[in-house]
TrEMBL record:
Belongs to the short-chain dehydrogenases/reductases (SDR) family. One of its GO terms (molecular function) is 3-hydroxybutyrate dehydrogenase activity. PANTHER family: 3-OXOACYL-(ACYL-CARRIER-PROTEIN) REDUCTASE, 3-OXOACYL-[ACYL-CARRIER-PROTEIN] REDUCTASE FABG. It comes from the Bacteria. It comes from Acidihalobacter yilgarnensis. This is 3-hydroxybutyrate dehydrogenase. Signal peptide: none annotated. GO terms for biological process: monocarboxylic acid metabolic process. InterPro entries: 3-OHbutyrate_DH (IPR011294), NAD(P)-bd_dom_sf (IPR036291), Sc_DH/Rdtase_CS (IPR020904), SDR (IPR050259), SDR_fam (IPR002347).
Length: 260
């Protein structure tokens, strides 16, 4: 088991990619805190991991709320004794042309993706820096950390911003044995993406099938969706990597949609 004795906190872990990472980490021996704004769903995921022989707890956490992030992170450390890995993954999508983009939606997007990344990082570092124990922080970026698409101004802006935070953390954290990365998935069939298909079809005046074939998979090398398991394997590889030779990196997992 690659993460035996490690503890991880995964935000947005009640669904989709976060859930997949949490389940993978638990199978690899980590104790996992399932942090999500949807507390009931977080508890259900934790219960399912525990039933499968893993170790998990559910934590109610809105990543935009400083107090909830501090308290939730502290309760994970109280339960498990330490925090080795933070996966800052919680996210939403709101699509609209810039000219019609509501300011409230823009602020909400930046708050969840960027305030959330900052607050969870700061809370985690307070534990990781103690006794130079160190740790790994992984942000869930996107191909949209590198590429732009119409209708996604706030998302693309936020996902580009995560690269900056990860690179600063790689430099600041080095002396404390903390490493930072961004994983940049292509399209993964999760509730976040399923919601976008009819929205984009409507907005762009094309069929849902065309949204999938042309917009979502058109630039991949093989027309195939990336999977939750592909992202979980990547998070596992980065989390278990034995040295700081790998830090400050953006790893794109997208069937060749974006090549670095
Ligand atoms: P999802 O909708 O399946 O899961 C997102 C989870 O985040 C949900 O459980 C939701 O309750 C939680 N969440 C939302 N707002 C929150 C908040 N304020 N505080 C705490 N939790 C909150 O979505 P997903 O596709 O698994 O996306 C996870 C991450 O991966 C996001 O950051 C997303 O931008 C990124 N991503 C997804 C794709 C994709 O194609 N699905 C591609 C690239 C990047």
């Amino acid at each position: 088991m690659k993460l035996a004795g490690k503890t991880a906190l995964v935000t947005g872990a009640a669904s989709g990619i976060g859930r997949g990472i949490a389940e993978c980490f638990a199978r690899e021996g980590a104790a996992v805190a399932i942090a999500d704004i949807n507390h009931d769903a977080a508890e259900a995921v934790a219960a399912s991991i525990n039933r499968a022989g893993g170790r998990a707890i559910g934590i109610a956490m809105d990543v935009t709320q400083e107090n909830e992030v501090e308290q939730g992170t502290n309760s994970a450390v109280e339960a498990f004794g330490a925090l080795d890995i933070l996966i800052s993954n919680a996210g939403v999508q709101i699509v609209n042309p810039i000219v019609d983009y509501a300011f409230a939606d823009w602020r909400r997007m930046l708050a969840i993706h960027l305030d959330g990344a900052f607050l969870t990082t700061r809370a985690a570092l307070r534990h990781m820096y103690r006794d130079a124990r160190g740790g790994i922080v992984i942000y869930m970026g996107s191909v949209h950390s590198h590429e732009a698409s119409p209708l996604k101004s706030a998302y693309v802006t936020a996902k580009h911003g995560l690269l900056g935070l990860a690179r600063v953390l790689a430099k600041e954290g080095a002396a404390h044995n903390v490493r930072a990365h961004v994983i940049c998935p292509g399209f993964v069939r999760t509730p976040l993406v399923d919601k976008q298909i009819p929205e984009q079809a409507r907005e762009l005046g094309i069929s849902e099938d065309e949204v999938i074939r042309k917009i979502m998979l058109g630039n991949t090398v093989d027309g195939v969706f990336t999977t939750v398991e592909d992202i979980a394997e990547t998070a596992l590889f980065l989390s278990a990597f034995p040295s700081a030779a790998l830090t400050g990196q953006s790893v794109t997992v997208s069937h060749g949609w974006h090549m670095q």
